[in-house]
Amino acid sequence: MVQTRRDFLKRTAALSAASYLGILLPFKDVGNALAADETTWHRGSCRLCGTGCRLELGVKSGLPVALRGVPQSRTNMGYLCMKGMHFWKLMNHADRLTTPLYRAKKSDKFKKISWDEAMNIAADKFASAVKEHGNNSVAYYGSGQALTEETYLFQKIFRGGLQTNNVEGNPRLCMASAVGGYMTSFGADEPIGGYADIEKADCFFIIGSNMAEAHPVIFRRVMRRKLDNPKVTVINADPRISLTSRIADIHLQFNPGTDLALLNALAYVIIDEKLHNEQFINDYVTFKKSKGDTIDFEEYKKSLVDYTPEKAATIMGGKVTADQIREVARKFATSKGTLSMWTMGLNQRKQGVWANNLVHNLHILTGQLLKEGADSLSLTGQPNACGGVREGGGLCHILPGHRPVEKEAMRNQVEEAWGIPKGRIPAEPGLHTMAMFSAVNEGKIKAMWINCTSPAQSLPNCNKYNKGLAKDDTFVVCTDIFPTLTTELAANLVLPTAFHFEKTGVYGCTERRSQITRKAINPPKGAKPEVEIVRDWATLLAKKLNDPVIDQCIKPFIGLEPEYALPKAIWEEYSQKLTKGRDSDLSGAPYEVLEGMYDGVQWPAPTVEYAKTGGTVKKFVRGMDPLAEKLKTDDKPYQFYGAGHPDHKLWVWMRPQANPEEMPDADYPFYLSTGRIIDHWHTMSMTGRIPELLRANPYSYIEINPKDATRLGIKPGDMIEITSRRGTNIMPAKVYEGPIEGMVFAYWHDQHPDRMINKVTMDAIDPGSKEPEFKICACKIKKVSGPQALKPYVV
Amino acid sequence: MKRREFLKKSGAALCMITAMPEIAFSKGLLKSPVTTNRLRPPGAVPEEIFAGKCIRCGRCVEVCPYRSIRLLDIRAGIFTGTPIIAAEEVPCYLCMKCVLICPTGTLRRISQEQTRMGMAVVNRHRCYTWEGSIICRTCFDVCPYKGSAIILDELRPIIKGDHCVGCGICTHACPVTAEDGSKAINIEPIYSRETVQWK
After folding, report:
1. Which of A17, A530, A639, A771 has the most CB atoms in a 10 Å sphere around its CB?
2. A109-149 pLDDT, tens per residue?
3. Across the interface, do B135 and A786 touch by the CB < 8 Å criterion?
4. What is the complex's ipTM, to 2 decimals?
5. How far apart (Å, rounded) are the C-alpha atoms in residues A638 and B141?
6. CATH class held by domain A5-90
């Protein structure tokens, strides 16, 4: 470039002037103004796991600045984990979706379109699918992280409006077996007690849960109890020695899939040594072989002879001794209060419901139930799997308020509450998750709405299902805050939504507790709350299908502002019309009551006065549960009014040991199990975007027992190829005295195509709960190279 | 300038430098670059003789699969060209390849457990868990010697000096970053200050 002296001088002068002005610009004052603003704190629930921690979001000048725990809360007592402390950083994240994106073909690139166009396209596609291919050609796949109002409204439009029960959610992948277990053993879903038992328990039986990683705040409560009372026994049963085992007095390490034998052996010892509670059994218990086949105590006892501690120890692989089993059984039966806790280790199994039943059996036999510190407590993974999906009607076979779809009277109650014609809700339960995605593979689902979840990564054997999702046969709408593998692979239309604290709604955690989070900040411009999206979409849908019933479904919500009034109206309808008179009665807990609570309300809570005390701490106990008094059939202190058991009793089930679907063999000699790590949440679309959390665990690795590693010549950090009959992963090795010999373990969060362990896992399902067996499959491992520097990968 | 004059002046300058060592060291020409979170690779000889023993061949940098080891540039004075690890940026993952390849014995051939790059020190006034009600366990989780080098006392991290190898993985992972770039857990290279025992 030619530059004359004059030019040079001119430019220099201009530059000097500009920099001088720049210094004078009031940048510093901006900072001062921010500093002068007070931080306001807004109470809400944690967005992440199912513990239900209460926290406060700090907002300064309309921007989120921090999160802190609520010390008065009965769930977390002010404690938070790292995920809970950091998720405010997602609210103004640069990756947030802010405009609807559309592509006609999944191979195309996304184009930005307006909200009007987007809603039109969504309504058009669903309307034409219904017209051309019938009502069951559309489907909703939701999430245990959506607010109750959202799940409820979605299922209302799909069931009442589009007349299909194809309403599912990712809780099918996490707690469907727990639902099955509670329904078959206690006759009513969800735990009898709650976290309050932790501080009263004398013996903890933790099986198939790594709560130190997955529920760190509950783990702290258990640890606190143990430290304050050294006589408290903690028993941990897990094929892998985890961080939870650190506080265990006894760790039972068995081969994956043999826990049914362990649980039966514990029952054997309890009965053999006469540690069972005869009075309790006589008063409240029925023994069952199958649903219609009632047996007596003697026959049940006989069925256990195959599970003497010696025999069970052999089945379990020899690391557990018969004496250990006896000791555990004695501690379990004779402690002042025994609290069992489990999560995915029992649920994500082909025998998930059976495993749940067998834990309940132990509590029923010993009477370690309904009293202080004793409970059979299934921990939930997601913040609103219980509240939104189990209670709100988010699964294909249940309507809101724990109503089974196949019962006509139940359907009619719902239709009446909605003011729609009788017979509008189809009698057949819809497709469960795995069947739904199989139907996508076969091209039977023409339009699908995926809300707040990423099945492209979270389904087991995902290679198989991603083929279907990638085809143009199914039109897919995704509502999310960030791009995920699913939006990239499967979506035709991506709708940006508001995040937690950017909208109002209720979450229901593990212990039947519903807690409200009110809007505290504005969503990024362009993002809308789901309830508003659904309402607008349904309005268009009614026009396109010319169906007044769809209009009727959203009539109570028309014209309401979407930030508070709309979710409030939805909650009002759900709690007052659909939970009233059911066991999950929340009619005493409108928004006003929930807002006044530091934590929330545990159902049943039929009246406002009662709800204000916090609700029911223990179900079924007269004097503690208002429904037990109201629905009592005799004078006994415990009343099992659950709709599942007409005889009002607890059922003890005969459930034999059964192997997982795929056992290691000569070709695939290792068990593979998967799990979580404290710093990450599910598919990492959120936690992967928080540098503090990503730095701690930037990518997945595979844990290998040191003995296996020595045998195969594997050193820490070596790159390992993990292959099953379904897919392959390559990730670094961590040689660690964790998994039992012959087993490897991997985290499932990583989005990188090489390290997505669900390509390898198994999609066999539990015949009862339809929950897939994520936790056990057979694989082989091979060293492919020495250590390599890897980069974290987030879409 | 005459030769005599030149010698005189340089002699005087040299005398001044040795007479006032703190000036020379503060100028950074002789000052060791090894400080908090700035570590030598595993097996390094004490700083006292490091600059003399290392021939700046750069092989440890080449062999490091994680690019943890970097060479110091000209600003490091007499330590220019010697290897360094910035623990909070890329820590040492203890693959022990560099100790095998070092041609001079500047990095001694030691095993993982014998490595003493420094010692982790928890800043209890900055650590989330020590400070209040946040349950963070990141340093414990990532430690390759958890249970022995770092233990949890009621969820609070405590370092056991006998076992800590000073790899810096905890420093790298620590979610707390202060304004000066340091973390709530930092590596102090206490072993590099050892004096060499000449026989």
Report:
1. A771
2. 999 999 999 999 999 999 999 999 999 999 999 999 999 99
3. no
4. 0.79
5. 44
6. alpha beta
